[in-house]
Amino acid sequence: MKTIDDVIARMDEIVTECAAKESRLGYFAILYRQVTIRVKEGILKGEFEDNPRMEKLDVIFAKRFIDAYEAYQNGAGLTVCWKISFDAAKNTKHIVLQHLLLGINAHINLDLGIAAVETVGEKNLLTIQNDFVIINNVLSELVDGVKNNIGAISPLFKLLIRFAKGRDEILVNFSIKLAREGAWKFANEYFSHDDRNSCIALRDQVIAGLAEGMVNPGTRLSRIIAIISLSEWRSVSNNMKRLDQVAKDAVS
Fold this sequence. Notes:
The chain is globular. The chain has helices spanning 4-21, 25-44, 51-73, 80-88, 96-120, 129-148, 157-164, 170-173, 176-192, 196-215, 219-231, 236-250. It has twelve helices and no strands. The chain is mainly α. The chain has one domain. This is DUF5995 family protein.
């Protein structure tokens, strides 16, 4: 993949594959495809400091998800945080929001910092910071829009917020702003690290821990999620169609 159009084409294929297989991996794919489309529109409008570089970042960033997805399909090795996210897709008791946040967790908290460093190469990492923030704002805008309208997919979702309010639960309190700040800090550590493979491995362990917290929240919250999951559509492909519309509405 060399262009953002290549990325969108591959994301279209993944979405189609997931819908045909009734695979919950399609939930994050739906969301991320819309993020990529939004970034492409931003590039065409000249919204970034360096639009050609943003396309390069987008391709490198997206490829980390696509490579992880393909590795999982083929039984090949992949990062632990992505494996936890993909394994969770087999569980019918998780709600749509869990699947979305698991993907976002791995992609921002691990992949984004790596992609930023690979994009700048030997240049000063600070040169990409502003565009790094902008791409996170795009994702934040989309995720907030989806959460605000997720009732179209998950009618009882407000129960989760009501009963989990004030509790220290990563599933409820996940913040893209905080994730962005952590991702930028990691990018700086990765950029200057003598052993980048070990740097990734250590970061992966930390982010995998957050993923475990999303998959296995506290007992009380797990019971609430079980109730909410009963109200969501049983058909994954129907959920994907609804989520796709919600995501499109979030950026329109």
